Amino acid sequence: MIYLLKNLIFLELLIGAGLLLFRACLTHEMRNIVGTKPAVLSLMLPAVALFGRSVWVFYAFLFCAAAFTSRDRRELAATYLLLLPAMPLLGTALVLGGVYLLPTTSFMALNLGAVVGLMLTPRRSPPIALSLDAMAALLVMLFVFIDARELIGFTPLRALAQNAATLLPPYLIASRCLRDLGEVRRALLSLCLAATIGSVTAIFGMVRHWDLYASFYPSLGVGSGGLSSTLSIRGGLMRMGGPMADYTAFGLFLAVVIAVLPLIRDGFRRDRTPLVVGVLLVGIFSTQSRGAWLGLIAGYCAAMLLRGRGGRSVLFLGGLGIAYALLGTVLGSSSRLGEMLGRSGSSTGTADYRARLLDRGLDEVAKHPILGQPIPRVIDNMPDLIQGQHIVDFVNTHLYVALGAGLVGLAVWFAIWAVPFARATRLRRVMPDVERRSGLGVAPAVMIAAAMTALTFTSTIDRNLFWPTLGLGFAAVLRPAPRRGRAAPAPVAAADALA
After folding, report:
1. The pTM is what?
2. Rounded to an integer, what distance in angstroms lies between the CA atom of residue 317 and that of residue 326?
C-alpha cells in the first residue's frame, strides 16, 4: 500500500507538471484546452488504476469518462485524444457463464465509451465521406481475415468484435466530431497535451530507472504482458514507454505528434514552442527507438514536400546524414553511445534479427504470394526466428500484413494509407490560400507518413494500428471542396474564420 501511494504521489506530481508546462506554452486563446476537466481526468486516472483494485473498475472509469463527461462532440474528441495514450494496454478475458467470449483491453473500454458518447452528444451534421467510411471498414476486415482465416466457430466473430472495437472508434471520433480547421487544430493540441504529459513521466523514469506505470498491473490483477521488454536497457539507460506499455509504440506516438506540431504552432506562444518540442524530443530519446526517429524524419519531410518546400527537406536529410556519419565515426567505439546509434551492443543483434526476419519473411511471401497464409503456419515455418519469449517478433507491420494476407492484402493496406496523401495533394492544389495559412490540410498525410515509416520497424503491438483509421478520420474533415455546381460541405470553406 505504501509503495502504491508513493507511485501515485510521483505520478500526480509529474502529470501536474506536464499540464502546467503545456498550459504555460499555449497562447491565451488556447489555454482552455488545459481546463478543469482535462486536469481532473488526467489526475484521476492513476488514482483509479492504483486503488481501484479491479481492472473492471478501471474499464468502467475509462468508459464513463469518454461516454458521459462531454457536452458536445468537440469536447468528446478532445477528451478521447487526451486519454488515448494515457495508460498501459491493460487486458483481461471476458468470460460469461464459464464461456470465453473475447479478450478485452483498456483501449477497447475507452473506445466503446467514446462511441456511446458519440450517440449521446448532439449531432453536428459534419460532411460524411462514404469512401473513407468504406476504407475504415475495409481495414477492419483485413485484420479479421489475418486473425481468423481458416478458423471456425466463434473465432471469426470474436476477431470481428475485437478489431472493430479497436480500429473503428478513432475514425468515428475524428470524422463525426470535427468539422473544420479550427476544430482539428484544437483536437491535435489535445493529442499534443497527452504526448507532453507522457514525455514528462518517461523522462523521469529514464533518469530514475523507475517505470511508475508498471505498478498498474499487479494493482489491477492483470498480467504484465510485454512489461519485461519495457524494462530493457540500451546504452545504459532504461527504455521507457511512458504511459504506454511498449516503448516502440510510445516512440511512434511521439514521432507522429512532433511531426504534426509545426502545423499547429500558432496555438503556442512563439518563444515557448521550442520548450514543448524539446520535451517531446527527449521523450523520444527515452524510448531508445530508432524507428520512431525515422518516422519523425519521414513525417517532417512529408510536411515540407506537401507544402511545396521540397528544398528544405533535401537540406534537412542531407544535414542529418552528415551528422549521423560524423557521430558514427567519432562515437562508434563508445559502447554506450554506439549502442544508441545501432553501431554496437544489443542493438546490432536487433538489426541482425530484423534483417533475417525480412529475408525469411519474403521467402514465405513468395511461397504464397496471392493471399498469404495463416500466421500460426508462418510461425511454424520459421522456427529459427523464435526468440527467448517463445514468439516470432514481427517487427515489421507491413511484412506481417503481406505474410497474413498476401500481396492482395498488402495492396489494400497501402491503398488505405495512400488516401490521405491523395486528398492532401488535391487540397493543396484547389485551396492554396488555406493551405498556405495553416498547413493543417496536410496533417493527415503527415501523420500517415510518420506512422507508416515507424511501423516498418515495429509490430502491431499496443495501439499502433489506430493510426491509419485516425488519419482517415482527419482526412474526412480536411477534404477538398466539391466541383463547381455542387453544394459546398463547409469544413474548409469556413476555416479562415476559425483558424
Report:
1. 0.90
2. 14
